[in-house]
């Protein structure tokens, strides 16, 4: 076996027992060499079933001939090929939109215990590092492309990431491989192409090992980010106490353990926490965290992000997104209380036990409501909610059950959610706040 084959087999060792290997096959040099290497290796090694995926973006006329080229090579190698046509959304960055469309297709086609293999190499890693450096990225961004990560229900692996492009070219020439040269790759109005064709030749003439050095720096940053993530998990463990209002279904953290940290550790912990919800705020936007953290104790500060918000209430910070940012629709008649009632944009409501008689209606708080409480008589709802400590942001979404225009119960709040004699209980299952940042 060639050194390149040995290096590839070693990189793929953790996935030798996967259900399938899919090669992201553009038809270019990188993916052509990767597919050819794998097709040769499977002749002498027991490997998972191998297939190829070609994504047709439909962005240029030349691309219409590429599926046929890919099919011919796959036929020669005996590898099944799937061609997927995607629609690229118009936007400011055509490169990013095409990448997003491509990876959406890959996510849909990669099942559990399956691996998508891509052909990025060391020169690509160096370009990514420099591109992000010029955009002012932090340690996480400068870590560039990881060797592996999750992809939908499966995994993505870049087994050639430590291999220089020159080695791939030499392999292709040795085996008389032909590949597609994308005409758009010479357009220097694309940022990556500008770096590849204008900047890197200058750098490598002065520093021949520039690409290798940048890739090594990216590896150092990845290791540093791993330590930062480990520290963040430790700090978040201190703040991850259970709230009495966990039934709201919202992600939340106890504020005091976070604010006891240094400002840098606060941001590190919150970056790690918010990363699971989507894109992180940029450097200038972190002033919103300072304002939320330092607001008066009796204030209700909000940090507004792209598609979500952080609220501070009850000594905690709460992540809200999606339906939680929209006013639910009310009132609603509940004609059959034996069945759960779907609340538009607000989950569902159900009555446990023997339903009360009369005309049932569900409303939301408007202000000035009064209800009768066992052994306490008539009480203002506002005072009752204050006694319960329910966060203000949740009060306008809390379902109120009326019978013949009388406020009878408040969902989920002990002592207010059931009949005086215990014949029934009002239970609310809120909508999930699962929409992340954009």
Automatic annotation (TrEMBL):
Highest taxon listed in the record's lineage? Bacteria
**Main localization (coarse):** cytoplasm
Q: What class of enzyme is it?
A: ligase
> In the UniProt record, does the keyword Nucleotide-binding occur?
yes
Check the record and name the CDD domains matching this protein. Answer: TilS_N
The entry's family comment says: Belongs to the tRNA(Ile)-lysidine synthase family.
Its annotated function is as follows: Ligates lysine onto the cytidine present at position 34 of the AUA codon-specific tRNA(Ile) that contains the anticodon CAU, in an ATP-dependent manner. Cytidine is converted to lysidine, thus changing the amino acid specificity of the tRNA from methionine to isoleucine.
State what protein this is by name.
tRNA(Ile)-lysidine synthase
Q: The organism's lineage?
A: Bacteria, Pseudomonadati, Pseudomonadota, Gammaproteobacteria, Pseudomonadales
